[in-house]
Design goal:
Structural class: mainly alpha
Number of strands: 2
Strand order of the largest sheet: 1-2
Mean pLDDT: 76
Order of helices and strands: HHHHEHHHHEHHHHHHHH
Strand content: under 5%
Number of domains: 2
Length: 390
């Protein structure tokens, strides 16, 4: 299964490389793609390990930061009340909590470098002038990631915590949140929102690679909204509708911005390359004309084929597309067959009538007489001889 998935990923990578560098780039074997993937993963792993070790030094400060949403939600008055709000039931839970918080902080801090490694793998064969465009893209991607994480930390996470606390109170349940579960829930919440806000980077990369354009995005915006809603429902760590709307709402706005940016990019390209887009429009019109079927045509006959429209060997033409049109005379083969059938069925007794080329014999030869007929002849002969003797 993994081999098939990797082969599909590598085929897409080769296609992207050919689109970017043209015919100058050649297809790589499977092992070279696998080596590039291994290099990317090793670089990311080393970056995360080094960043995690560096952030682990400040785990006490990070723990206070991750507890602050309890104060923002109104569940706790201050940080001291927030520490007492959580309980610990595991021996290694505080230590794993510090590791978890340090790892998430390392991902946020080292995100620009991780994005560089990822883009170097996904977009091979970049030209020097195109590589310069990576830095603005990385800056925009990092800003969107930090914006999504900040939106989750200051807005969505406090509201989600307050919602679950009020729901438990409506059932008469006393809240005692375990520290490891709270840390896992909060860090996952922040990380998921940060990654989901990378939607414009992904969409604009597809537009740049000609996988998407303004026309496709404009005609399928309803499908995009449904896809975003399903994505938000799957990726959110909570099943409540409030969190779903708080995630999908900003994604709708970001996708609308992507459609607007795609329109601006296409407008600039049309001004720079008018002949190229004129040829594309011409090809699209030809495809639309070739793809139009005749089901709406009142004279369309779905049982006809292309061979039925050709002339027969004797010059008789069948026109099925015009049912009202009738041939002036039947083909010669039909006339000949009708004459033979009329001659064949003439006569009084048609059941015993045979064709002229096979005459019916008048009597059977002697060798074809049955035993009964031979016995009757013997009786007649024997009776005749007796009468002569008398």
């Amino acid at each position: 299964m993994w081999s098939g998935i990797l082969q599909k990923v590598f085929k897409v990578r080769e296609k992207v490389a050919l689109n970017l560098s043209g015919a100058t780039d050649e297809e790589k074997p499977f092992m070279e793609h696998l080596e590039d993937l291994r290099t990317m993963l090793v670089r990311m792993a080393i970056t995360l390990v080094v960043s995690t070790i560096g952030t682990f030094v400040f785990y006490k400060d990070l723990f206070r930061v991750i507890l602050y949403p309890l104060v923002l939600s109104g569940l706790c008055a201050d940080m001291e009340a927030a520490r007492n709000y959580l309980v610990n039931i595991g021996v290694a839970s505080p230590f794993m909590m510090a590791i978890n918080v340090s790892l998430i902080t390392a991902v946020i801090i080292s995100f620009p470098l991780l994005l560089v490694f990822l883009l170097q793998f996904i977009l091979p064969g970049l030209k020097p002038n195109e590589k310069k465009l990576l830095f603005p893209a990385i800056g925009i991607g990092t800003g969107l990631f930090l914006g999504g994480a900040s939106f989750a930390y200051w807005v969505v996470l406090p509201k989600a915590l307050f919602f679950f606390d009020q729901f438990a109170e409506s059932l008469g349940i006393k809240q005692m949140w375990e520290i490891s579960e709270y840390i896992t829930f909060s860090t996952r919440f922040i990380l998921v929102f940060g990654i989901s806000f990378e939607l414009p980077v992904i969409v604009m990369a597809l537009v740049k690679l000609d996988f998407l354009n303004f026309k496709i995005m404009k005609s399928t915006w309803r499908h995009a909204l449904v896809a975003i809603t399903l994505f938000a429902a799957i990726i959110t760590p909570t099943p409540d509708v409030l969190t779903l709307m708080l995630m999908s709402g900003p994604l709708y706005v970001l996708y609308a911005i992507c459609v607007w940016l795609a329109y601006i990019m296409e407008k600039k390209d049309r001004a720079a390359f008018p002949e190229y887009y004129a040829q594309i429009e011409k090809d699209e019109k030809e495809l639309e004309q070739a793809g139009n079927d005749d089901w709406d045509n009142e004279n369309y006959n779905p049982w006809s084929s292309a061979d039925d429209d050709d002339d027969d060997k004797d010059g008789y033409q069948k026109d099925y597309k015009k049912p009202s049109a009738t041939p002036s005379a039947p083909p010669p083969e039909v006339e000949k067959a009708a004459v033979v059938e009329d001659d064949y069925y003439q006569g009084e007794d048609q059941s015993s009538q045979m064709p002229d080329d096979e005459p019916k014999p008048e009597s059977k030869p002697d060798e074809e007489k049955t035993l009964e007929e031979l016995a009757r002849e013997d009786e007649k002969r024997s009776g005749g001889s007796e009468s002569k003797g008398d």
